[in-house]
Amino acid sequence: MTMAGFPSTRGETRAGAIRRRRCDRRGTNVSAALAIALITLSGCDGVTVLVPAAPGPTDGAGALPMMYVPSIAGALEPVFTPNGTRYLNDHTLVLGPDGSLHLYGITDSSVGAPFAERSLLHATAPSLYGPWTEAADILTADPSLNESALWAPHVVARDGGYWTMYYAAGVGAEESPQRTLRRADSADFEHWARAETSPIPADRPPGGRDPMVLWDGARWVLYSVGVDAENHGQIVATTNADLDDPDGWSGLVTVLTDPVPSFVWGNLESPFVVRYEGWWYLFTTRTADNAIDYVRTIVFRSRDPLAFAWRPLTELRAHAAEVVQSADGAWYLTSAGWTSYVGEANRGLLVAPLTWAIVTEDNGNGRPTGLFVGTR
Amino acid sequence: MSNDRRLVLLLCVGALAACGDAKTPGSLADVNSDGAEVDTDPCAGRECGTFGGRSCGICEASAVPFSEYDPNSSTYCDEQQGVCGGLKKDCLDGWCVVPAGSFQAGWDFAATEPFVEPPPHRVRLTRAFRIQQTEVTQGQWLEVMATNPSPFPGCGLDCPVSGMSWFDAIAYANRLSERDGLEPCYRLTNCDAPIVGDVLTVCDSVELIGLDCPGYRLPTEYEWEHAARAGSPACFSNQQLEYPPDLEPWCTLRPEIDPNAWYCGNSAIGAIVGECIELGHTGICATPHPVGLKRENRFGLHDMYGNVDEYTTSPWRSPSDMGDIDHVLVDPLAGLRVGRKEPVVAKGASYASGTTATCSAYRSPAGGEDTSLIRITGMTGFRLVQTLPAR
Predict the structure, then answer these.
(1) Out of A266, B25, B149, B309, which could bridge A233 as a Cys pair, Cβ 3.0 to 4.6 Å?
(2) pLDDT tens, residue by residue, B240-270
(3) What is the C-alpha to C-alpha distance for residues B62 and B130, in angstroms, rounded to an integer?
């Protein structure tokens, strides 16, 4: 989800929406009245950049390089439970102009059935911790478009008061669908119109699932997931200066490759990238066919949002995690997944505070030593 | 059947290749010393196998709806006798005999969704072997390696050992071979840590000296699958269970699975608080369980499904690299050497696995140099095999 300045509690700002307008290449429409200082400290990826391009902390003497490592700082709390037996899986959060939050996500009434996930759930709330109200589903798989399943929506705000959603669709045979990326647009969060075409390089293998879009300061980056020819899970990306330019997409680049091959459909899922202290942090679920690994989110960092080495910083117990920051600067991690693997008590959206722990860096290899120094 | 024909059959059983080579292509009859025509059809009286250069058929299990699958039907072919089925329990001192022969491997699910299991295909194993009746226990490991790496010590010495690297398991096999006066099956090169059992070992390479080595080794993935299936084309060899499309997957407690496997639907039962692992975000805490409590299969083997994943000796290959599965795969091994970065195949699923993983065909990557989670989740163990001398 790309959002900052959203209210984590009542009565906070609209800074996130404002910032996105500044980032849209189709024109700037920043309201001077609302152009508060936070904007100048914000990145277009939707997170606040507190100290752009900062080299990172040191221990004062400079002897030990230090690094920020995200860490869950409290319990994952259920904040939204869908109606009936429906679950929430891959999801996205977006801030509306009235300060309300909108949640969209994969859903089905079973305990977990990916090919039965045919509509995208929608819920709204005044703050991250609720109370959440479930609204009508926004999109349903359209057989006339060859859609059999809808997955993994991600929404970005656009200049001009509308929002663009990228989502994955299963197309073709119901039990063996191909994955593809599609787009829809909305001006009111309730009615979404599919784009006529989605000529995106990631609209086919090795991409084609779990899209995530951010503005990296110079261009839009569209991430998705897939596998290489040897079944190594991958996160891939394509870039475009203008989301509405169908010819503007770059070729697909590989952002991250799992060194261990796995499922044919790829074991890296739900990429989410944020910028913090001059580094890009990539959160991705490294899933497996067991209940323990289902909630493994691995975190990487890089100076380049398009290239991450396989040097995990940490693991967080979350599935399809998204990172959000409230207007007061607090960070949160979300999680959601199949009821069978999260339990009835945690069906829906889970939220936990996220801190950036300062730890010493193992000399030269970019990994934390685990020596905890503090938090920020 | 005439005496002459019976003789031909016996000769063919004893020397299959010679039988085939001696036969004129296309000829199905010879003349005996009395001038009478004798039927020399190499497939006569045989249900399956390859004799005289001819395929005499394969053993097909009943292709009926899942719920009507006949547990007595078998895809196993005794390639020497040319008969289907006939598998039996032959166990002694914790080891069970698994005969050579051919069987159907693979998974029907692969036909609809491209999993890492290939679709159904035939495999022929030319060596009989014996395999441990249960997963190697903590007690057995302790006896040989003098330490217990399991993250579940409270589970007890009868619980499967886990928390060791694949290289550690290889070292265990070698050490057991040496203890029993057998030539070790593996050569280990440049190991990071001394193999003492309490340090996770990673080596530059491990070489299997061959499937005919006299010592103990890990099974190939197909030896494991043959042992697990015991001729069954279904997920379980000991129950008429196949997964119908409408079966709710994951951690649902299924009465069909519960008697056969410790998986995430039942592995919280009796789990010891303090050393169990939460299943997802369910709040349910689970562990492995003592071996041998679940139903045995036709070979007498326990816990082939669930409890702990089991390392094999086979380097990981994706289905597209596993050979031409349109033809019978003979002794597929996928290589004798495994490097430090190479994953191997694990079979059998674990206490944390969902329902659809508790299946004979299921395979997952394991091993390699990333040992970061091994001691935490303890999901992978192993059992040993030993090739039996040719009859």
Answers:
(1) A266
(2) 555 554 455 678 788 878 888 999 999 999 8
(3) 28
The Cα A47–Cα B179 span in angstroms is 61
Are B365 and A261 an interchain contact pair (Cβ–Cβ within 8 Å)? yes
* Distance from C-alpha of A159 to C-alpha of B1, rounded to nearest angstrom: 89
B-chain residues near A230 (CB < 8 A): 318, 321
Question: Between A and B, how many CB-CB pairs are < 8 A?
Answer: 119
Taking the C-alpha atoms of residue A248 and residue A199, their distance in angstroms, rounded to an integer, is: 10
pLDDT in tens, A269-324: 999 999 999 999 999 999 887 888 899 999 999 999 999 999 999 999 999 999 99
Q: Angle at which helices B138-145 and B166-179 pack, to 10 degrees? A: 70
In a mutational test of the B interface, the residue from A209, A267, A286, A290 whose CB has the highest number of chain B CBs within 10 Å is A290
The pLDDT, as a whole number, for residue B113 is 56
Delineate the domains of chain A, giving CATH numbers in brackets.
Answer: 74-350 (2.115.10.20)
Q: Tell me the pLDDT tens digit for each residue of A249-265.
A: 998 999 999 988 877 77
Contact A149, A170 (CB under 8 A): yes
Task: Report the candidate in B120, B156, B124 with the shortest Cα–Cα distance to residue B137.
Answer: B156
Class of the domain covering B66-387: alpha beta
Beta-sheet pairing, B91-92 with B50-51: unpaired
B339 CB within 8 Å of a chain A CB? no
A60 or A219, greater pLDDT: A219
Set of chain A residues whose Cβ sits within 8 Å of the Cβ of B264? 290-291
In chain B, CATH 3.90.1580.10 sits at 66-387
Please, are residues A339 and A85 in contact by the beta-carbon 8 Å criterion?
yes
A261 touches chain B (CB under 8 A): yes
- Print burial letters for A321-348: b (CB count within 10 Å at least 16), e (below 16): bbbbbbbeeebbbbbbbbbbbbbeebbb
- B/e letters for A45-65, b = 16+ CB within 10 Å, e = fewer, are bbbbbbeeeeeebeeeeeebb
